[in-house]
Design a protein that fits this description.
- The chain has about 550 residues and is of the alpha/beta class.
- The chain has 2 domains: about 110 residues, no CATH class; about 400 residues, Purple Acid Phosphatase, chain A, domain 2, CATH 3.60.21.
- It is built from 19 helices and 14 strands.
- A 6-stranded mixed β-sheet has the order 4-3-2-12-13-14. Strands 5-6-8-9-11-10 form a 6-stranded mixed β-sheet, sandwiched between helices.
- Helix 1 packs across helix 3 and helix 9 packs parallel to helix 10.
- The protein is globular, with a radius of gyration of 23 Å.
- It binds 2-acetamido-2-deoxy-beta-D-glucopyranose (7 copies).
- One 2-acetamido-2-deoxy-beta-D-glucopyranose binds next to loops.
Length: about 550
């Protein structure tokens, strides 16, 4: 009986701890791999049955948290404060979702891909396909929209301009210089004694002075930038802190003020990241309306009233960048695997319908479209196949007017190449996934500048920059270096989907090209360990693996 009880709590615990571990190891293994190593399908199902009976006997949430936390602490899974905090934050949500949906705990085993979805009792797919929406979709009249800050004239007489992408800033106001970077918690450098440097540490989120120094540098580029895409994730990775809602809010407000101060006359297009919410990754209306209100106020300087209206309704918006070029900023929490609310059969707004409607109107208005969002469709980002299938279909249908797709979230420097859904052999689009500004975990801080040709409506190159935190801590100064330019590094004639498709295929046979891609993938301060065989296959299939089906197919399983 004791063993069985342990399983109950392990299942529940896993569902909750996924959040922590997902960020812990985001650069090494996808969520599902980590989970399936920790627990088998049978154990999950057995545990799930027992969770079921626990719910039936009306065990209180507090009791469940207490017992699970005790188990978590005794097993040494995490430090006591992390165990208690993470369970306090997530258990009530998991239980609510189980009670409100018609899902059984066993469906979580399928959802997290611990068991074959063809097994009996798999209702998750059914509920996804039969999702109903509580409110009417919102449609906006795209033709009336124009950004508040009018785009500046091009910097030269050429038709080429530049835009900046900043992403995953994750600054930590509680960073303490000289604290312990190896504290045995998901986020350190906050207390104890150690070598956490003035400019940062590779195991931790960024101290605010480093973020300020980076923006100080970026602000000197303002004259060269037509606009800025800011793809979210502002607060630190202290996801177990039960009192961090006000800090989540402050992070978005502080960074919005810093961006505005650094770029007083440049249009900025922000997107919502999974860490903006509290608890991190959980988004559901009306529960999360407070966050939309914060975004409304923080993004107000850059967006017009129509865009702000959809921001306050669901966190997405569209806005003209200039005549003939539109930006769509998505709320990708709808695709977040660890947004447990996505298991509920209802959502407040049909984002897909809105997205498709904006694309249709863009076609009618002869506009090109840049799509910006936080979580990209790649296995490493813990995103649902349901979301990616929808996204891939729209990219396929509207590929001819989609001129760029700009994402972040993985902290890695990745591309993701879309192919047609019938033969998987015709390139139809590319996601640019830019690496993080935070050093968490084991990256040099980065930012990216895209070169965009307004007559071709194409990204024609991008320039990836990084600072060296070891050097900065050593010499007391933060310098930025060009890591590479895409066109030169991959020897590309242009940056069309076709050319990226060819590069991605060449990675299979061209060792030099693969090593280039792999080395910049994590921008690791100490260089990369070699990646061959299955490691190499995974890195390459990740590029084509928009859904887990496509990833498996590419891997030959
Ligand atoms: C649990 O609560 C429900 C509704 O409040 C009640 O009908 C049921 O008898 C309770 N079950 C137990 C085992 O106490
Ligand atoms: C899923 O089913 C396949 C084929 O029946 C089997 O080979 C595989 O081991 C199963 N996987 C799991 C996790 O049960
Ligand atoms: C752009 O063109 C105008 C007039 O055709 C010319 O006066 C100006 O010098 C040009 N500017 C650049 C940067 O080439
Ligand atoms: C650091 O903070 C944690 C949580 O607040 C606490 O449990 C721990 O004892 C502290 N460690 C030191 C060395 O002060
Ligand atoms: C949401 O919108 C999409 C695209 O228009 C549509 O295919 C789907 O059926 C809608 N879902 C619901 C539940 O209305
Ligand atoms: C950063 O600087 C250190 C120390 O000078 C050096 O060993 C390392 O290679 C540099 N890293 C990068 C990415 O340039
Ligand atoms: C940064 O650049 C300046 C000017 O080029 C140079 O003097 C300084 O040594 C550099 N610092 C580091 C840490 O590389």
């Amino acid at each position: 009986m004791v063993a069985k009880q342990i399983l109950v709590y392990v299942v529940l615990l896993l569902c909750c701890l996924v959040t922590v571990h997902n960020c812990h190891s985001i650069q090494t293994t996808p969520l599902q791999n980590r989970l399936s190593k920790a627990i088998s399908c049978e154990e999950c199902r057995l545990g799930a049955q027992l969770v079921d009976s626990l719910i039936e006997i009306n065990a209180s949430t507090t009791d469940i948290i207490k017992v699970v936390a005790d188990l978590c602490i005794k097993s040494g899974f995490e430090q006591p404060d992390v165990c208690e905090g993470i369970l306090t934050n997530y258990v009530p949500i998991v239980l609510d979702v189980l009670l409100e949906s018609e899902l059984s705990p066993g469906d979580l085993c399928d959802y997290f891909k611990l068991c074959n979805s063809t097994d009996e009792s798999s209702d998750a797919e059914f509920y996804h396909q039969n999702r109903v929406y509580r409110q009417k979709e919102i449609f906006t009249d795209c033709s009336r929209q124009s950004p508040k800050i009018t785009p500046k004239a091009l910097k030269s007489n050429s038709t080429v301009g530049y835009f900046l992408q900043i992403t995953d800033i994750h600054f930590d106001h509680d960073y303490v210089v000289g604290s312990d970077p190896d504290c045995g918690r998901p986020l350190c450098c906050r207390n104890g004694t150690g070598d956490a440097g003035v400019w940062g540490n590779y195991q931790c989120d960024l101290p605010f002075n480093t973020v300020e120094a980076i923006f100080q540098h970026l602000s000197t580029l303002e004259d060269q930038l037509d606009f800025i895409i800011w793809t979210g994730d502002n607060p630190p990775h202290n996801v177990w802190d039960p009192n961090s809602k006000s800090n989540q809010i402050a992070a978005t407000q502080t960074l919005s003020a810093l961006v505005l101060k650094s770029f007083p006359s440049t249009p900025v297009f922000p997107s919502i990241g999974n860490h903006e919410s509290f608890p991190s990754d959980e988004f559901y209306l009306p529960n999360t309306q407070w966050l939309l209100d914060v975004l409304y106020d923080s993004w107000e300087p850059w967006l017009d009233s129509d865009a702000l209206q959809t921001v306050s309704t669901y966190g997405f918006y569209t806005s003209l960048v200039r005549d003939g070029l539109r930006l769509i900023s998505l709320n990708t929490l709808d695709g977040d695997m660890i947004n447990f609310y996505n298991l509920l059969p209802t959502r407040a707004v049909n984002q897909t319908a809105w997205f498709e409607n904006v694309l249709q109107q863009a076609v009618a208005n002869d506009e090109y479209v840049i799509i910006a969002g936080h979580i990209p469709c790649t296995l490493k980002s813990g995103v649902s196949d349901e979301w990616c299938t929808m996204y891939q279909q729209l990219v396929e249908e509207y590929g001819s007017i989609i001129s760029a797709q700009i994402y972040g979230h993985t902290h890695l420097d990745q591309i993701s190449v879309y192919t047609d859904t019938e033969t998987f052999s015709k390139p139809i689009g590319v996601n640019y996934i830019a690496p993080s500004m935070t050093t968490y975990q084991n990256h040099e801080p980065g930012f990216r500048i895209y070169e965009y040709d307004y007559s071709l409506n194409q990204v024609t190159n991008y320039y990836q920059y990084h600072a060296n935190i070891s050097d900065a801590n050593l010499y007391g100064q933060l310098n930025f270096t060009l890591s590479y330019s895409a066109k030169e590094l991959y020897d590309m004639p242009d940056l069309t989907s076709n050319s990226w498709f060819q590069v991605a295929n060449h990675l299979r046979s061209d060792d030099q090209m693969f090593n280039n891609y792999y080395n910049f993938l994590s921008n690791h301060p100490n260089g990369q360990t070699p990646c061959t065989g299955e490691c190499r296959d995974k890195v390459i299939c990740e590029i084509f693996g928009i859904t887990s089906f496509q990833f498996d197919q590419c891997m030959g399983v």
